[in-house]
């Protein structure tokens, strides 16, 4: 059939588009909405929210972010928080200025990131399939393939740097795609792409540089006809980025921050002087193995669609444009993941900037057989998709009625009622370095952790207490309060 369009009716295309978006939105709601009401947030997201809140309240500044008077990791090189670039903290602090110290802020910020991600994946899909109207209208498919990855629906509601950085990277790739596919040279798109790369790096560091590879990958896939645009565009984007970086480094507070961040985070990770995801050489392959596990459902769906083509005796090869989209998106994904394998400091959410392109890849692999299936069996978009959407809404309602329990949140809330803000609370050595405690107590109660009983009047004993609790209970110098959830607070009595 070559590059001819699939013989699919307009009605089937429209029905699939409507039913597909309904299914995608309901699945997103199932995995996003309940998580926005249960107060269960990953430790990193809690720390970033606390830093942003503090910045909004005048504690710390953009280039000197403040987390707390205590920290659980020994790597921070500054008197302030310089573990990560500060752009996300600055942006989220604007919402705290608007809404105050409310738990709704993280959820609003996560929703903005989610909407921006869905919009950009849809725009990139529509641009890639601008010559294939039937496929172009199914932008819900890469969105669902993206959000259907476990790492994505876990990360997006968790207030992570990686989700914000992924948005800036998507903007950069979209601007470059528009420039490459435009008949004329569009310098403003290339400049905007360079700006977005700068913003990505100010969110999560050098991993945000990967869009610089996009013109070369596009040239490799689509041919030498794009050489002039790709080469000149890469120059403009790179020059824009380095001009912005140079201007930033002239500013002394930014220079000091970025120098300490680069040495203490980036170089230390490359030299294996930071946390390790696991021991041994397999630590370098963690992200690859994780990705393979996460795409098992996608591979099963893809296999099912091609079995349909086989049994239906449909031997129609995908158009060359579709095949090129597959190659382009998988190469972009590889260009993101491979550099990260150099470090043994890896985490599930590190995959986030690559996963939109994984979603686009699987969307491009599934679109042709899916269109044929929906055209031949109208029950798919008319009955099965809506039925699945109703089930997803039902599950969402159930999850809203049965929220997950977060003990650290409950204890922090009880502490807030008894301990003044910005105080320190002593914790026994065996739990004093737990990141979940540091972040929850700072975010929900604005408390830091004391590592010595002489540093504070407030001693907290978790899950049964210790010999120290038994001792101070006997000498009557502390008021002992049961906070519930197996937590006991001892408050030093004022001397008469």
Structural features, described:
By secondary structure, this protein is mostly helical. It is built from 20 helices and seven strands. The chain has helices at about 10-30, 45-55, 85-100, 105-130, 135, 140-145, 150-155, 160-180, 185-205, 215-220, 225-250, 250-270, 285-295, 295-310, 320-340, 355-375, 380-400, 405-415, 435-445, 465-475, and strands at about 60, 65, 425, 450, 460, 480-485, 485-490. The strands form three sheets. Strands 5-7-6 form a three-stranded antiparallel sheet. Strands 1-2 form a two-stranded antiparallel sheet. A two-stranded parallel ribbon has the order 3-4. Helix 1 packs parallel to helix 6, helix 2 (about 45-55) packs across helix 3 (about 85-100) and helix 9 (about 185-205) crosses helix 11 (about 225-250). The longest helix is centred in the first third of the chain and has 25 residues, at about 105-130. The mean pLDDT is about 90.
């Amino acid at each position: 059939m070559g590059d001819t369009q699939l013989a699919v009716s307009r009605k089937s295309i429209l029905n699939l588009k409507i039913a597909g978006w309904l299914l995608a939105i309901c699945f997103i709601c199932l995995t996003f909405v309940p998580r926005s009401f249960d107060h269960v947030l990953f430790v990193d997201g809690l720390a970033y929210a606390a830093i942003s809140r503090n910045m909004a309240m005048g504690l710390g500044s953009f280039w000197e972010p403040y987390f707390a008077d205590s920290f659980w990791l020994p790597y921070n090189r500054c008197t302030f928080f310089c573990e990560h670039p500060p752009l996300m903290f600055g942006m989220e602090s604007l919402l705290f200025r608007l809404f105050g110290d409310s738990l709704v802020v993280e959820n609003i910020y996560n929703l903005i990131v989610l909407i921006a991600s869905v919009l950009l994946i849809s725009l990139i899909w529509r641009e890639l399939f601008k010559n294939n109207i039937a496929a172009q209208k199914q932008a819900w498919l890469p969105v669902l393939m993206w959000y259907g990855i476990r790492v994505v629906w876990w990360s997006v509601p968790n207030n992570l740097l990686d989700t914000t950085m992924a948005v800036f990277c998507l903007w950069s790739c979209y601007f470059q795609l528009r420039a490459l596919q435009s008949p004329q040279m569009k310098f403003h798109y290339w400049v905007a792409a360079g700006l977005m790369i700068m913003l990505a790096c100010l969110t999560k560091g050098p991993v945000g540089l990967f869009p610089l590879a996009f013109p070369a990958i596009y040239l490799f896939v689509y041919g030498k006809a794009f050489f002039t645009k790709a080469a000149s565009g890469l120059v403009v984007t790179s020059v824009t980025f380095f001009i912005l970086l140079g201007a930033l480094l002239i500013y002394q507070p930014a220079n000091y921050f970025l120098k300490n961040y680069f040495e203490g985070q980036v170089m230390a990770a490359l030299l294996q002087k930071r946390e390790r995801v696991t021991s041994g050489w397999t630590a370098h392959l963690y992200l690859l193995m994780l990705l393979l596990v996460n795409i098992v459902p996608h591979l099963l769906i893809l296999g099912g669609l091609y079995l349909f083509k086989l049994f239906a005796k449909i031997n129609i090869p995908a158009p060359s444009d579709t095949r090129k989209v597959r190659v382009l998106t998988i190469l972009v994904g590889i260009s993101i993941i491979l550099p990260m394998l150099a470090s043994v400091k890896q985490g599930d959410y590190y995959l986030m900037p690559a996963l939109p392109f994984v979603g686009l890849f699987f969307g491009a692999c599934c679109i042709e057989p899916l269109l044929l299936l929906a055209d031949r069996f109208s029950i798919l978009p008319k009955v099965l998709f809506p039925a699945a959407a109703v089930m997803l809404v039902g599950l969402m309602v159930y999850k809203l009625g049965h929220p997950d329990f977060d003990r650290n949140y409950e204890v922090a809330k009880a502490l807030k009622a008894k301990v003044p803000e910005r105080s320190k609370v002593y914790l026994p050595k065996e739990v004093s370095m737990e990141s979940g405690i540091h972040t929850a107590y700072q975010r929900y109660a604005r408390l830091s952790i004391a590592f010595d009983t002489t540093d504070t009047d407030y001693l907290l004993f978790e899950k049964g207490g210790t010999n120290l609790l038994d001792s101070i209970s006997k000498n009557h110098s502390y008021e002992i309060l049961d906070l519930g959830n197996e937590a006991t607070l001892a408050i030093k009595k004022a001397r008469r």
